[in-house]
Amino acid sequence: MDYVQAIVDGLLFGAVYALIGIGFTLIFGVMNKINMAYAAASFAGAYVSLGIAQVVGLSGDFGLPPFVMFLVSAVAGGVFAYIVYLICFRFTPDHYELASLMATIGTLLMVDEMVVQATNGEPQNYPEVLQGIFDNPMLEFSEEFAIRGDLLTLFIVAVIATLGLLWVLFRTKLGLATRAVAQQRMAAQLCGIRVDRTNATTFVIAGVLGGLAGAMIGAVVGTLLQSLVVIPLTIKGLIVTVIGGLGSIPGAIVGGLMVGAFENVFLAIRGVTERDMYVMLLLFVFLAFRPQGLFGRVAVRD
Amino acid sequence: MLEVNDIVTAYGKIEALKGVSLSVPEGQITVLLGPNGAGKTTTLMSVAGLLKPKRGSVTFEGQDITGRQPGTIVQRGIALVPENRLVFPDMNVHDNLKTGAYVRNDNEIESDIESIYERFPRLKERYHQHAGTLSGGEQQMLAVARALMARPKLMLMDEPSLGLAPMIVEEIFRIIHDLNQEGTSIFLVEQNANMALKIAHQFYLLEQGLVTFSGTPGDMDENEVIQRAYLGTTA
User: Which of A13, A128, A177, A189 shows the greatest Cβ crowding within 10 Å of its Cβ?
Assistant: First the structure.
């Protein structure tokens, strides 16, 4: 049993958890509400990219180049996220605290069921489009330890996506508006920022990240199976967000990598059937001893 | 400059303003006094577009702005410095100021920030600090500065002296006075009637959602003003 290998693999794969966590945290940041349908809706983007690939084929004449898979998944993820915004937030009265939450849970179950209908609940082979950029395994340090090329590619793509997000947030007018709405909604309105538009844009950005994450999970695992992806990854994304601290982007990044490494170690020790149990345990440890998460603030009255 | 015409603004079924009319002339400082719950903040919010009046109209420089988006109203030249300052706590001072210029598309924003720093040297010293770490007085200056970034012709101010030490309050009132001298019209809501009347050109008394008096600071006995501003007529 090689723990170093398990931890490194887990950290690299954890980058997709970080992306999902960032999506949850962004939406919570600007709206102060949880969007339970977020991960499911953006993974639906990955299914769309898969569907297109199944129709036109991959590479070759008229085929889909691998990076287009990611593009399609990301765009579709953004579109689905916007639809969720319209259904669950824009046209759901916001003076009932629970209305949006219940609407998003309903949407989550509906998306789950739609994926079941579309796939007959069977696993769908996802083209391993992350292969081939690096040799696989790329860096063989010894008999026991090597870095997987596809995981390294995934990690790099996730880092680029995160840097892109931070650039938008801290270097553009759109980002300024997003941060303003997240920190002080009324003052943002007084500065002329349209809160509803900012909310919608945030959903789309989060959806793009989620679509990308969904496609990369499909590519690394080699299949998309609804019963292992839609609801379980929604829950894992929420766990990442809680561990990192709701509303904190650095928290989501660290939380994602941490959960990735943690679950992979327990996968190595206890096997796939028990893995998620220990992730839940980690969540309870945090809820009991550090409920505000790694980077969250202790709630204070203002 | 600003004409508020018989506006009724309600929270649900409760009417906070029951037909308020007042006017703010160009180049002056107009003060709105009244006890807690009289509807002073509601009046400002109705002008700034945060609340939509059920009835009545608001016109600015002859144009109807009733129920327009806050962004449109800022662009027309009305900026509100809100009660409790409401700075963006996790943004540095510089970004707070940039947000104040959100509706502008010209290329003089950075040079405006420079002149803000000349006016408020304390903000310059702290330009990279998160606004949430500033003192109350500094946050109030930042809130005023942020509103100035929109280049307003009329500034609405909601209790800028609230919770500040007396020395800082004097500084804030001096800033208001200076801004007015430079040509910005001011519509000021205050609890501190004493200080407000010293710089006011004219004032209104608002009680239970209605304007009950209007005039210039000499028109009413100061003790009566203060009593009605804090307690209302019924006391």
Answer: A13
Q: Which residue of B has its CA nearest to A178?
A: B99
Is the CB of B82 less than 8 angstroms away from the CB of A191? no
Quote the radius of gyration of chain B (alpha carbons, Å).
Answer: 17
Q: Which of B68, B88, B98, B105 to mutate to test the interface with A (most CBs of A within 10 A)?
A: B88
Residues in chain A within 8 Å Cβ distance of B102: 173, 176-177, 180, 191-193
Q: What does the block give as tokens for B79?
A: 């900026």
* Closest-CA distance of chain B to residue A177, Å: 7
**CATH code (residue B44):** 3.40.50.300
**What CATH class is the domain A3-289?**
mainly alpha
Query: Is A180 an 8 Å CB contact of chain B?
Result: yes
Which has more confidence, A228 or B113?
B113
Residue-wise pLDDT for B13-61, tens only, equals: 899 999 999 999 999 999 999 888 899 999 999 999 999 999 999 999 9
Cβ–Cβ of B50/A191 closer than 8 Å? no
Nearest Cβ partner for A183 among B50, B89, B102: B89
Which residues lie closer than 8 Å to B198 by C-beta, 6 or more apart? Answer: B173, B217
What separation in angstroms does the CA of B149 have from each of A180, B28, B116?
15, 20, 8
Question: Which residue of chain A has the CA closest to B95?
Answer: A176
Tally of structural domains, chain B: 1
Q: Cβ(A133)–Cβ(A153) under 8 Å?
A: yes
Question: Is the pLDDT at B79 greater than 60, yes or no?
Answer: yes
Report CB contact under 8 Å: B71, A173.
Answer: no
Run of H or E residues at A214:
helix A195-221
| CB burial readout A210-234, b (16+ within 10 A) else e | bbbbbbbbbbbeeebbbeebbbebb
For the stretch A6-23, pLDDT in tens is: 999 999 999 999 999 999
- What percent of chain A has a predicted confidence (pLDDT) above 70? 94
